[in-house]
Amino acid sequence: MASSDPTPAADHRPQGDGSAPPARPRVLSGIQPTAGSFHLGNYLGAVRQWVALQDTHDAFYMVVDLHAITVPQDPAELRANTRLAAAQLLAAGLDPERCTLFVQSHVPEHAQLAWVMNCLTGFGEASRMTQFKDKSAKQGADRASVGLFTYPILQVADILLYQAHEVPVGEDQRQHIELTRDLAERFNSRFGRTFTVPRPHILKEVAKIYDLQDPSIKMSKSASTPKGLINLLDEPRTTAKKVKSAVTDTDTVIRYDAEAKPGVSNLLTVYSTLTGASVAELEQKYEGKGYGALKTDLAEVMVDFVTPFRTRTQQYLDDPETLDSLLAKGAEKARSVAAETLASAYDKVGFVPAKH
Ligand code: ATP
Ligand code: LTN
213 CA distance to ligand 1 centroid (A)? Predict the structure, then answer.
C-alpha cells in the first residue's frame, strides 16, 4: 500500500483534444551511482517498486550522476559505477521496452531547469533540508560543496521536467518530494500553470529497511560496520552469513513488533517482501521455533534472490556496447519530454526564445 497522501497529483500539463485514450500516470525516480552494489534497502525501498510500476505507469528512471558529484568522486569509478547501476536496474527487472531508463547527465535539461529552480528557492528553505545537514555534518560543513547544498533543487528539476505524478522513493526522500511540490506550486502560481505537482509513492512496509546489526538505524552504505549491510552483489555465502548473524533480542518469540522487537521485525519484513508470504503467515510458520530457524530459511531466500541477480548484472556488464546503446535510446526518449517542459518554463520566466 502506498502511503496515503492528502493531496492528489495535480496535472498541469497541456490537455489534448480529448480524443486520445487516457494516458497512464507518470512516475519518475532516480538512484545514485555512488556505491558499487545496490543494498537491500535500495532494492526493497525503491527499485522493487520501480519494476512493478512499469506495468501500470509511464515510467522514467535514471541514474543520477549529476547528483553523485555533489561529493567528491573518482572519475573512473564514477563511470564504472554509472554503468554498474544501470546494469543492476536491468537485472532487477527494468525493461527498456516498458520504461525509459537513462543517465541524468545525458539530458542537459536537468541542469538547465535546476538553475531556474535555484532562483526560486529561499536560502532558508534549502537550509532546512535534513539530508544536506546530515551529509555536510559528516564531511565537515566547510568541505561540503555548494552542489551538495542545492542537491534537492536538482532533484526538484528531475521530477518536474517529466511532469511526474508520482515519485517512488524510500521514506528518507519525503522531504525532497515536499520541496518539489512547494516549488511546483510556487512556479505555477507566479508564472502560470506549467508543472504537475507530484506526490510521493512510499510503501509503508518497506519504506525503511534497517541495519542487520543495529536495527535502530536504516540500512545504508555508509553504515559503521559492513556486517549489517546486505549488498546485492556480495558473494551469496557472505550474504547468508550476514543474515545468520543478524541481531535479534534475548526473547525467542517470532513476532512482528517494530518497537519492542526491531531486529526480528526487520527480518520478517524482508522475508515477507521477498517471498510474498504475509507477516502473519510467517509468524504462524515459526511459532514455537527459534530465531535460528527463521534466519536459516531467510538466508536461503536471500541466496536464491541474489544469485541470479548477480549473474544477470554481470551479463549486462560484459556487453558495454549494448548497455550504452540502451542508455542512449533512453536518453533520447527522456530528452523529448524534458526539452518540451524546459522550453515552456523558459518561456514563462521571460527568456527570449533562441532562434534555430
Ligand atoms: P545510503 O543511505 O546507503 O547512502 P542512499 O539513500 O544514499 O543510500 P540512494 O541511491 O540515494 O541511496 O537511494 C536510492 C533509493 O533507496 C532511495 O529511494 C532511498 O529512499 C532508498 N533507500 C535507501 N536506503 C534505504 C533503506 N534502508 N530502506 C528503504 N529504502 C532505502
Ligand atoms: N535524492 C535521491 C535520488 C534522486 C531522485 C531524483 C529520486 C535524484 N533525483 C528524482 C527520485 C526522483 C536519493 O538520494 N535517493
Answer: 17
Q: What is each CA distance from 39 to 84, 96, 120, 222, in whole angstroms? A: 13, 22, 35, 11
Model-level pTM? Answer: 0.92
What are 94-122's pLDDT values in tens digits? 999 999 999 999 999 999 999 999 999 99
Q: What is the Å distance from ligand 1's center to 209 Cα?
A: 9
Which single residue is written with the C-alpha cell 537491500?
40
pLDDT at site 12:
58
126-133 contact pairs (CB < 8 A, 24+): 126/150, 126/152, 126/153, 129/175, 129/176, 129/179, 130/175, 131/172, 131/175, 131/176
**Atom nearest to 209 CA in ligand 1:** 28
- The answer to whether residue 218 is catalytic is yes
- Helices within the chain (DSSP H only): 40-42, 48-53, 65-68, 75-92, 109-118, 123-127, 130-139, 146-161, 174-191, 236-244, 262-275, 279-285, 291-317, 320-349
| Residues pairing with 2 in the sheet | 203
**Catalytic annotation on 289?**
no
The answer to whether the CB of 64 is under 6 A from ligand 1 is: no
CA of 289 to the centre of ligand 2 (A): 41
Q: Is the CB–ligand 1 distance for residue 265 below 6 Å?
A: no
Q: Which of 31, 32, 42, 266 to mutate to test the pocket of ligand 1 (most atoms within 8 A of CB)?
A: 42
